[in-house]
Each structure stands twice: as structure tokens, then as C-alpha cells.
User: Fold these one by one.
Assistant:
Number 1:
Amino acid sequence: MCIRDRIYMSSEITVISREDGSGTRGVFVELFGIEQKNANGEKVDYTVSTADITQSTGVMITSVSQNANAIGYISLGSLNDSVKAMKIDGVAPTTENIKNGSYKISRPFNIVIKEALSVVAKDFIDFILSSDGQKVVEQHGYIAASDAAAF
């Protein structure tokens, strides 16, 4: 532990969270058990009342990057050089670790439809799942779908 680490450890941690209704927040509170059912069976979000609430990923990144004692959460595809992804239980958030399940904090993105696909929608889905489409996914910092399946 260096002196810098000791200085920061003596300071209070600033928790940065997303607003109610954020999909990222919803997954985060679910994965970490921050959302639990009360005695009436209703879901309750137990995010600390002292958390600074942000309205966007950009504000989350800026808030964390400008405060050495801050901690927050964003999607992997939003990660940039101004903030650092944390290891969880000693496991780094690499593509391999996320794919093999050893990095426990991840969520899939799903494409959903109401009715049968139109020709244009089918072309779009075909592109997304093609090697060119998956390259676009990776270029934006997300993990390519290796086993795309329809349900």
C-alpha cells in the first residue's frame, strides 16, 4: 500500500449512482442485492441515501474521474481512459472473463420484437449478427455475441 492509498482510505467514499428508472441502475441493484423484497413482497431499492445521483453515463464518468474517492458503475462499452474498471473478487473485467462467467457483473443485451420481422428488420438483425456487425459491436467497446440464439 502506498501513501496515496492510505490517504484515500482515510477519506469517505463518495457513492455515485444512476437515477431511478435507469436500466444500468436496475441491473446493478439487482446483481448486488441492493434491491430486495420487503415484508409485503414489494421490491425496495436500498441504494444509500447519501449517494450522488447522476442522470447520464457521461456525468457518472466525469464525477468518478474527478474524485479519487468516488465509486460508480457504467456499462463496459462506456469505459474510457478517465476511469478504471474494478476487479471483483480478484477477477478483472476482460472479455474472456465476462464470456466464461468468472467476472460476475455482466448483463446481456437482447433484441425483442412484438410481431414477425419485416424485411428491413430482418436485414438489420442479419447485419447485427454478421461478422461485420459484430465488429461494430466490438469497436464500440462491447462484447461480440458468440452464440446468438432466438427464443
Note: The two ends are 49 Å apart (CA to CA).
Number 2:
Amino acid sequence: MDILSAFGEYHKLMEPMPCIGLAYIASSCQKAGHEVFMLDNFVEKKPFEDIVESVKSFGADIVGISMLTPTANSTEALGHYIKTRLPSVKVVFGNLHASLFAENLINRGACDAVVHGEGEIIFPRLIDAFLNKSDISKIQGISYKGEEGIVFTGISDPIEDLDALPRPAWELFPWRDYSFLPFVTVAKPCLAISGSRGCPFRCKFCAMGYMGNLVRKRSPESIADEIEWLVKEFGAPHIGFVDPIFPLDKKHAIATCRAIRAKNMPEKWWWTCETRVDIVDEEMCREMKLARCKRILFGIESGVNEVLAGVGKGYTTDNVKRGIVAARSAGLEISAFFMLGLPGETKETAKQTIDFALSLDIDFAKFAITIPLPGSELYDDLVKQGKISQPEWESFTTFNPDPDSLPYIPEGMTGKELLQLHRMANVKFYLRPKMIFRHLFVIRSIGLKMMFNGAMLILKQLFKDRK
């Protein structure tokens, strides 16, 4: 199974997205003196046998693979495939899903080790140890198979000085093919930047807190320098902050925006970010607009205060309205994320959320079916309740169109009802004359191809519902 097949027909809505985490690890390995080859299979779409040929051609001693939940089974199969055909090559898995299920993955022979946490320091150390055949037990932040079973060496200290990291090695990636930022399809190329790490909030459906809530921010000057580098060296007209929340506070936001404005950069570029709706105010949004922020993304999740409180969002619908007004007053385009099927959701509250989305002055809305991601409090609760036992990871995606394989359905609802509400939300939001006009004649950056594909998929599913 390739990486796109986990999304079914909805892969038509997906475009290649810059993998900044791997780009950071690649540059850190280069800094440590290692030769690095990158293969982004979202772009390349190579079958397993061609991936192995690429590994052989490069002469790799170690293969690192990022494991995402929806594609965990295919990633595990790829690990087995590489180890079977190239037994001398070490296979290392990384990312959150691999960290959570490291013992099973290693015991089943899919990999030789798993990296836990931030890989920029851990992975180069592990490479050195493998190449020198030295003791890997002294490396913090890994799991491996020892003489008496699986060994976990403990959590590695978080990277405190993010400014000290080498810039992402985009030159190793097919960066000219990247045209997707979080829910923003743009003209190629677009690249990503990280302004901070960690999230101080504890939403129950989010797995971010599993790796720790320690927040570390880059200096405004470092962020501005990297943006200038991306624009001038790569000609990237579109840059996206991939932080879970950026900006995290008003002071850092304004300082960063002013540092960006101080740079001598071409006019035809812009950036986007995702933050909390209760963080922004009009002054902050105006500073962002002046610094060439074009679009801001808000994770609103629900239009019902009781549902918001139940998942620990920490704000109300009144906060949402104020944040939307602040962003719109500053002239920013606004995207909003909503989740259907959160704990405590009913058909009535889901419809209230849809109506709430329609009432807001926003440009884009993504309605997602709630997925209990491994590492989140929601997932842990469902496992304890016996509602998730032997998960089919391919179904752990918001693009899952099968009502019988949804990993979580709130009590009192059926999978079919939840999917119908999801389609209703998209139809009601986008098939309004105001939205059609706005997207066809005003906002061109979203990409008409993606919008057309999305409309066709919605209509196809609606016809299925009527059969």
C-alpha cells in the first residue's frame, strides 16, 4: 500500500507537503558528517522494490523511516521488505506512532531501533554507534532489542536552543513539487518553517502533549533570517508555519513580524500560520498582515460550548467570534477547522456546529470526523473502555469514507449518520452563492483543481447515500 491509498479517493484533495521534521534531521546528519539521501514517497510514489533499489544505489548503511498512524501498516511492511532484501542495512523508525508502539514493531522484526522524540540529536548519535559498532545503550531516546528483550533508554532532553539547529536541508527534497500547506493549496513551490516547538494546551483529542508540553521559541531574528533565505534562495512565494500554534503570544508575534518587515525581500510572497482564536487581537493581526501574513488558520472544533469544555479547549464561542472579527478587521483570510463526532456529540450539537460555521465570516472551513489519535487522552480513554482493541490503522484518517470502519463514533450516533453530517457540512458551507463567488473570483490561491475534486467527491457520496 502506498502512502496515498490510506486516504482512499480523498487523496485527490492531497498535494505534496514539505516534510520539515525530516529536513531538520537530514541537515543535522549532514552537520555530523554523514552523507544523506532523502526519498519523499508522497511525491515519488515508488513501490517497495524501487525503494530498495534506491537504497542500494545510494549504498545506504542505515534507513530512517517516518511512521504516521494512517500508513503505519504499510510502513511496517516496508521495514520488513528492506530488512529481508538488505539484511545488512539497519532500519530505524521515528515519529510519534513508532514511539508509542516501539516494542511491538521491534519484536515483529520491522526495524532495528525506534527514535523517541526530537531526532536532530538522537539520530546522528545512533548512526555513529551503528557505523562504529559501539554500544547504543548509552544513547538516550531510543528503543532497541537487547539480550533480555526490548530496551528503552529513556526520554532524551528536549532541544532548548532551536536557533542553534542547522537550517532544514530542503535541497535534498523535491521541494519544487510542494504545493500544500495545512489546508492551503498554492502555486508551487511552497516551503515550511517552524517558529517554536511544544504546546502548553491540553486538548483531549490531540496527541501533541505525549512528547511533552515544554514550549521553546525561536528568536524573531532567526525566524526572519530563515524566511529571507527561503524566499531568496529557493524562490518560495508561499511559506507556512507548521507549529501547532504560531504565534503563541502577542509579544513574540509582534517582534517576529517587525523582524520580517525589516528584511529586504520581494513583494510577491506570503505566509500562513495556525493559532488559537483566543490569542489574537486586532493589533496583533494587523502586525501580521503588514509582515505579509495572508491567511490565518483557527482550530475552532465546535460551535457548542459544552462540547468545547468537554475536550479541554479552554475557550467559548464568544472567544471565537471576537478572534474572527479581529482577523477579518486586519484583512486576513481565515480558515477554520471543525471536528464532528467529539465526545458528547449528538446529531443536534453537530448541526449546531455546522450552523455556527455558516454564521462566521470565514473563507475556508475544514470539517473533520474525530479520530482518536494514539497518544491523545481520547485514545487512551477509549482503550481503557475497551472500545479500541485491535485497530485498523488505515481507518485512522479524517478522510475515511467507510461508516463501518470509523475508529470512534459517539454514543447515540451511527457511522452512517456521522458521515452524512460531514457531507452536509461541506455542502452547506461551500455550495452557497457567496462561497462560490468568493472562491472562483476572489480567492484564487486555494486551487480550482482541488475544489473541483472536492465537489465531485461530495456529490458522489451524496448519490451513494440516496441509493
Note: Residues 179-466 form a domain with the pyruvate-formate lyase- activating enzyme fold (CATH 3.80.30.20).
Number 3:
Amino acid sequence: MANQLGKRYYCPKCGTELIVTRAGEGTLKCCGQPMILKS
């Protein structure tokens, strides 16, 4: 899954949020789980 530039992702376990500043391939992970694209 490609990480989308300017999109916000969050961790369902701890609630950490981030905004992607450099798009690329791979999976964003936090607390050992994939982060979820916030709508």
C-alpha cells in the first residue's frame, strides 16, 4: 500500500496521528499494527 502525500494516518491502539510529508511504498506501523488512513 502506498502512503499518500498529505494524508493523515492514526494508530487504533494508542491514538498517535501523523501526516505524510513524503509519499512512498510500504506500511506505516505503530504499536506493532498498521496505521489507518483517517477520513
Note: The longest strand covers residues 8-10.
